[in-house]
Amino acid sequence: MGIDFGLLRDQCERTLGETQFSGLGTRVAGKVRDNYIAGKHRYLVATDRVSCFDVVVSTLPFKGQILNQLAAFWFDKTRDIARNHLVEVPDPNVSKVLECETLPVEFVYRAYLTGSSSTSIWTAYDRGEREYCGHVLEDGMRKHDSLPEPLLTPTTKAEHGAHDELTSREALIESGQISAELYDKAAAIGSALFAEGRKWANSRGLILVDTKYEMGLDADGEIVVIDEIHTPDSSRYWHQDSYKRALEQGGDPTQLDKEYLRVWLGEQGYRGDGECPDIPVDVRCEATRRYIEAFEQITGIAFEPNTEPIEERIRHNLGLD
């Protein structure tokens, strides 16, 4: 397992930044996925774009392949827990899914007091706040401490280019954005998925620290899990052994997610405002290496990078030649 850094550096010149596939459907661009809506279905094209602080900051080699295939792994693994929108994976970067009505909430679950962004639970706690998304936090906790129990800390579902905002169950219901019944049903699904994700990660020597779920309603009005699940983009992973050392020594656990990139950008003084600094090739490659390590440790499968010209391959696999 593992990957050659020379291959990663070469692929930095051939990443998939955006797509324009005519004949596939109506294109709607997300932060990292290009969506093509075609009647009852949607094609999710996982590009190599990477976003930090709700801003697309660069591309990472093979990132789209890793995310698409890891999301498919988790969707398949959790079908007995919750319905999801995945129909098939016709290409390493593409998923064909059911078209759903997206709920206006991102269901964010946190099991540890951590994070580096301006909206993270640790950032809020460190500046003295003891109420977070409707939850009261006890005094005397340290960075990276396990929370007494996992917390659901929802955010609004912002339009592309805007920032998600922290909120609470009460605020969402009071504003009329979602009913109490629908929120609670979706929250129960998310809690079950998070419990299963943490259990599986633990069996693989990892800690699933936090994650977010997006959900929608299908044509029958039933809740369906959409977008992605338990990927290094939507989740934070630590090595179990590095977490123990971090608590003992007062450092940070090894991160197998895009937190590595967030921290690097923060060290350059960038947190989402103004012009993003250029990210060196070696930093991009190291970020990808961590994504690959997460993929391989979670799935137990060696990542096999496909180096064919990406757009040509997608056109062929989707019959768009």
Share in β-strands: 25-35%
- Sum up the overall morphology in one term: globular
Portion in helices:
25-40%
CATH architecture: 2-Layer Sandwich
**Largest β sheet strand count, sense and barrel closure:** 6 strands, antiparallel
CATH class reads Alpha Beta
Structure report:
This protein has 321 residues and is α+β, with helices and mostly antiparallel strands. It is 33% helix and 26% strand. It has one domain (5-317): ATP-grasp fold, B domain (D-amino Acid Aminotransferase, Chain A, domain 1), CATH 3.30.470. It has helices spanning 5-11, 63-77, 121-126, 169-175, 180-203, 240-249, 259-267, 281-299, 310-317, and strands at 26-29, 33-38, 41-46, 49-52, 55-59, 86-91, 94-98, 101-112, 131-132, 135-136, 146-152, 155-156, 206-217, 223-226, 235-239. Strands 8, 11, 12, 13, 14 and 15 form a six-stranded antiparallel β-sheet that branches. The chain has a five-stranded antiparallel β-sheet with strand order 1-2-3-7-6. The protein has a two-stranded antiparallel sheet with strand order 4-5. The two termini are 34 Å apart.
What secondary-structure arrangement, pairings included, does this model have?
Blueprint: H1 5-11, E1 26-29, E2 33-38, E3 41-46, E4 49-52, E5 55-59, H2 63-77, E6 86-91, E7 94-98, E8 101-112, H3 121-126, E9 131-132, E10 135-136, E11 146-152, E12 155-156, H4 169-175, H5 180-203, E13 206-217, E14 223-226, E15 235-239, H6 240-249, H7 259-267, H8 281-299, H9 310-317
Antiparallel strand pairs: 1-2, 2-3, 3-7, 4-5, 6-7, 8-11, 8-12, 8-13, 9-10, 13-14, 13-15
